[in-house]
Design goal:
The chain has a domain of about 40 residues. Helix content is about 60%, strand content about 0%. It is rod-shaped, with a radius of gyration of 17 Å. The protein starts with about 20 loop residues before the first helix and ends with a helix.
Length: about 60
């Protein structure tokens, strides 16, 4: 089982920004996508850590 520090962020898909969307809105969409990717990374690292700890106990 790889160490949780070796996990990397998933590619964050570009938000759907169409012409006419304000730059502030586009920035907020990108920021939300980055936060979601970081949340998924934390969850993944936690899952890997839990699996490694359970394997050590057995």
């Amino acid at each position: 089982m790889p160490h949780e520090s070796t996990l990397v962020l998933d590619e964050v898909p570009a938000p759907k920004v169409v012409p006419g969307v304000d730059a502030r809105v586009a920035w907020k969409l990108e920021e939300a996508a980055r936060k979601e990717a970081n949340k998924r990374l934390r969850i993944s690292r936690n899952n890997v850590r839990n699996v490694r700890l359970k394997a050590q106990v057995k």
